[in-house]
Design goal:
single chain, alpha/beta, six-stranded mixed beta sheet, 13 helices, 10 strands, 45% helix, globular
């Protein structure tokens, strides 16, 4: 599916029929931390994808994927997918609008809050596998067993749907020099690249990965798929051990660079977001700020945007992060 501007605009209309455009704000206290000196022209825009019905950007992709599936004349008896939480909520919310049952497989020990949110949306939840890749294998087996449709975590329709957030951002905050975006399996970053290119903009897009889940960064640098174990304790939304080849191909050509951030940097960014904007961010949601803060000396005097991709963090985890010593 080509990511032309008319194609992305059509997907955005599907999203906006359910979900009004989400805001992007400049928060003065957050922005002040990036200023090289008083009165400089630095701008920092925060794209609030934590303000959706499922608390994350993923809902956009699910709405478009299900809409196009149904318009294509296919009505499966059920849907199966694997997730750490946000993708599963997206598929569940969209499928409920069409009356299609959903089975979601999550890794053992997955976030209790994310599991509860998916169950509240009516999914049948199965815990299996020690990580996302293992859960996906189990989900594929269950889909074959039941004769239900397996929903991938990366698909052109998912990318077209999530690209709607990027169209909103570029319209509301024109002439952005740089946008930082977290990378899990890649739909959010690819949606941003697709929108940037369709609009003919020159904005730099910097992908952000966890240093404890570096497979995408390693693969991008090597120009080939490289699998790597994940050990992040905070950024489950970025805990990808094996990149998707289609996503990697798009990111290799569309990203300016890829930055790695540690769990400690992510925790500091979560605290900084709460202290300066009173926003709750999950680990992946705070990763863009962590990377931009790492490179803040390079951003002085520029217009920069950070994608706050989601706010679905467990209460215990967030309480622990907030209780840790403040950072500079």
């Amino acid at each position: 599916m080509p990511c032309t501007l008319p194609t992305l605009q059509a997907a955005a209309r599907t999203v906006h029929a359910v979900l009004p455009p989400r805001p992007q704000y400049r928060w003065p206290l957050l922005e002040a931390g990036f200023a090289a000196h008083p009165g400089d022209s630095t701008q920092v825009w925060l794209k609030h994808e934590n303000h959706t019905p499922v608390g994350a950007f993923k809902v956009r992709g699910g709405l478009v994927y299900l809409d196009r599936l149904m318009r294509g004349g296919e009505r499966p008896p059920g849907l199966v997918s694997a997730t750490r939480g946000n993708h599963g909520q997206s598929i569940a919310l969209a499928a409920a609008r069409h009356g299609v049952p959903v089975l979601i497989v999550v890794p053992v020990g997955n976030s209790r809050e994310k599991n509860a949110a998916m169950r509240a949306l009516g999914v049948e939840l199965v815990e299996a596998g020690e990580d996302f890749q293992a859960s996906r294998g189990h989900a594929q087996a269950l889909a074959a067993q039941r004769g239900w449709r397996m929903v991938p975590s990366f698909h052109p329709d998912l990318v077209a749907g999530v690209a709607s957030y990027a169209l909103e951002l570029f319209a509301a905050a024109p002439d952005l020099r740089t946008v930082y975006v977290p990378i899990g399996l890649g739909s959010g970053a690819c949606g941003l690249v697709a929108a940037r290119d369709a609009l003919g903009l020159s904005t730099r897009i910097v992908g952000v990965v966890s240093s404890a889940a570096p497979a995408c960064a390693l693969s991008s640098a090597a120009g080939r798929l490289i699998a790597h174990p994940t050990t992040t304790q905070l950024a489950d939304g970025m805990a990808c051990s094996t990149p998707d080849p289609d996503a990697l191909a798009m990111l290799q050509t569309g990203l300016d660079s890829v930055v790695q951030v540690s769990d400690a940097e992510i925790a500091a960014a979560m605290r900084r977001l709460f202290e300066t904007t009173h926003q709750v961010a999950e680990g992946a949601g705070a990763a863009a700020l962590a990377a931009a803060w790492q490179q803040r000396a390079q951003l002085a005097g520029q217009r920069t945007a950070l994608v706050l991709s989601g706010g679905n963090v467990g209460r215990d985890v967030f309480a622990r992060v907030l209780s840790e010593s403040p950072t500079d």
